[in-house]
Amino acid sequence: MLSSNALKYKITVTPSYYAGVLIFLLYSLVISLSFFVIPISSISIIFFLILLFLAFIAANKAYQQSFEFKLSESGEVEREVAGKVYHGKISEDSFYNGFILFLKFAVDRNILSDKKDKQLMIIYKDAVTEEQYRLLARVINSRRD
After folding, report:
1. Cα(96)–Cα(50) distance, rounded to whole angstroms?
2. Contact 119/86 with Cβ under 8 angstroms?
3. H-run or E-run covering 118
4. pLDDT tens, 75-130?
5. What is the full DSSP assignment across 18-47?
6. DSSP symbol at 42
7. From CA 13, how far away is CA 57, in angstroms rounded?
8. Which of 2, 63, 79, 85 lies in disulfide reach of 20, CB 3.0 to 4.6 Å?
């Protein structure tokens, strides 16, 4: 294995305030737009309160999301989910900005076949360290060349 292919970087994604706020704002937008469609009554108020409760639950779940994966300079990724290890390579379709990273990668479905599944990881800037964010951005840029 080449040294550039060694999975030498361990990326730890921690809880993100950005994720929680974004999910809560999306639910709030749905609730706000529902006021224009649904006439206000006692049943609709209960509906809005349930949606608001769901907004808090979804925002909390998005905030608490954390995971780890290993990465190489060449874009190789290894991630363990529910006891199953996935190996893949970051796609050219991945992108980033100053707020968020979208990592799209092809994962080997089975060692014996050539079929690949596409997976998407969304990583907010406040969920990783500055060094890890720059590393991920560098790997994304190197995959585009």
Report:
1. 34
2. yes
3. strand 116-124
4. 888 888 788 777 888 888 888 888 899 988 877 665 555 667 788 888 998 999 99
5. HHHHHHHHHHHHHHHHHHHHSPP-HHHHHH
6. H
7. 20
8. 63
